[in-house]
Write a structure and sequence with these properties.
By secondary structure, the protein is α/β, with parallel strands linked by helices. It is built from eight helices and 37 strands. The longest helix has 21 residues. It starts with a strand and ends in a 19-residue tail after the last strand. About 45% of the residues are buried. Bound molecules: uridine-diphosphate-N-acetylglucosamine and calcium ion (CA). The site of calcium ion has 2 residues, from loops.
């Protein structure tokens, strides 16, 4: 069966009260529309069409990487009119025509399994419809069935009678049917209704009139069909999404001390026996090796953390590679292009940027290391600053193996420190320091004999 998916995303999303088009608001770090698109893509369709309208260029620009076919709907005259914009592009030969699956760009949590069932139920020339029973169905289109229980039509909330409004089964908007039927019906839609719109939902009654069976399908969970209309609903679905991800991780063997205080906004790969404490936010692509522990209050984006490494509380880590058995934090900041080898220790109030640090080296307190290569088993004292920036250009610092740098040292780049060198505390290093020797640059200490403090006059 050839499948085409049409994702409707032209609505304005007024209730978001945002300058950003609704489908670009993020859930789990990804735009809402990307969720719908990925679920569609998992069905391996011929093509995914996205019908866009308000803020369209912005949506297209932001999501150009998706590989969808973009179809503009201008003006927006309703869901039936939206689908009609995509239909001319879809194959509809009587024998070899596509099945069309209609989805909404603002419904992010539908699963490929449920969509697969909707598509399957449309097989054999039927129209399938995803419906759900809601305790409060207000606002939704209601599913009207006959005495035998067969679906007859959908009536929109604003067009419904008192009796119809009492129906709890609602239209989720997702449906599948052959393109040839759909083309025929959509061409006949009218807009004589409360909203003056071309309702896609009116095709249900047309199918029934044509003797086409309408097959209702239920989702596995109501969250799958929930749309985002405002930021309250967005937050609800975000929590649901995070809960699902957290459960999946726990089932894979990750310990989450509190799954309600864990947020993954991207892709996470984990080894065995990883332990993650509370208030950890992971973004982008993160890999955690075996037995990695992440302490409370950490923000980590695009990082690769090796086996047995531990991240102590309150760190900000972005674009970093952290080696096996390394220890980072508390209160450390690793910026992009930081590479820490095995057993490196980075301590409190240390910032590392675009630097490589070889195995066993310790930078434990109050330092800034930028554009630097540090060798192995080196000890960098508290308050060491690489002065890498002269106001116009960045310069490199190279520090060898087994170096000892005393506290409160400034390294004025470009500068090199040879293997085994010692730098005296308080040095401002302006020239290269040779290997194996003590280099110190500080004012000589003197004591003035007989000096007295000034005294206040009486
Ligand atoms: C629609 C359904 C209703 C269903 C509900 C589920 C119709 C007529 N009604 O109502 O039965 O219970 O969804 O949420 O279909 N859109 C366009 N172009 C348009 C209009 C809408 O692309 O001209 C898109 C919107 O961006 C949105 C989707 O279609 O993603 C649904 O539109 P919306 O206005 O939210 O429809 P509802 O009135 O909620
Ligand atoms: Ca809606």
């Amino acid at each position: 069966m050839r499948l085409s998916v049409v994702i409707l995303a032209a609505g304005q999303g007024k209730r978001m009260r945002s300058a950003l088009p609704k489908v670009l608001h993020r859930l789990g770090g990804k735009p809402l529309l990307e969720h719908a698109y990925r679920a569609a893509r998992d069905l391996r369709p011929e093509q995914v069409y996205v019908v866009y309208g308000h803020g369209g260029e912005q949506v297209r620009d932001a999501l150009g990487y998706l590989g969808a076919q973009w179809i503009e709907q201008d003006p927006q005259l309703g869901t039936g009119h939206a689908v009609a914009q995509a239909l001319p592009f879809i194959e509809s030969g009587m024998d070899a025509g596509d099945t069309v699956l209609v989805l909404y760009g603002d419904v992010p949590l539908m699963t490929p399994e449920t969509l697969e069932r909707v598509v399957m139920a449309s097989g054999g020339g039927c129209l399938s419809l995803l419906t759900v029973e809601l305790p409060d169905p207000s606002g939704y289109g209601r599913i009207v069935r006959n005495a035998a229980g067969h679906v007859q039509r959908i009536v929109e909330d604003r067009d419904a009678s008192q009796v119809e409004r009492a129906i709890g089964e609602v239209n989720t908007g997702m449906m599948a049917v052959s393109a040839s039927h759909l083309k025929r019906w959509v061409a006949r839609l009218e807009n004589q209704n409360a909203q003056g719109e071309y309702y896609l939902t009116d095709v249900i009654a047309m199918a029934v009139a044509d003797g086409i069976a309408v097959e209702p399908v239920s989702p596995a969970s109501v969250f799958e069909v929930m749309g985002v209309n405002d930021r309250v609903q967005l937050a609800e679905l975000e929590r649901r999404y995070q809960r699902c991800q957290a459960e999946q991780l726990m089932r894979q063997g990750v310990t989450l001390l509190d799954p309600a205080r864990f947020d993954l906004r991207g892709e996470l790969q984990t080894g065995q026996d990883v332990v993650i404490d509370v208030n950890v936010v992971l973004e982008g692509r993160v890999r955690l090796g075996d037995r990695v522990t992440i302490g409370p209050n950490n923000w980590i984006r695009d990082a690769d953390i090796g086996d047995d490494a531990s991240i102590l509380p309150n760190c900000v880590i972005e674009g970093a590679e952290i080696g096996r058995g390394a220890r980072v934090g508390p209160f450390s900041r690793l910026r992009p292009e930081t590479r820490l080898a095995e057993e490196v220790h980075i301590g409190n109030f240390v910032e590392v940027k675009k630097s490589g640090v070889m195995s066993g080296t310790k930078i434990n307190h109050l330092s800034y290391i930028g554009d630097t290569e540090v060798g192995r088993d080196t000890n960098i004292g508290a308050g060491t600053i690489t002065c890498n920036y002269d106001g116009a250009n960045k310069h490199k610092t190279v520090i060898g193996d087994r170096v000892f740098i005393g506290s409160d040292t400034q390294l004025i780049a470009p500068v090199k420190i040879g293997d085994g060198a010692t730098i005296g505390a308080g040095t401002t290093l302006t020239r290269d320091a040779p290997p194996g020797q003590l280099t110190v640059g500080r004012a000589r200490q003197t004591t003035i004999a007989g000096w007295e403090r000034p005294k206040k006059k009486r």
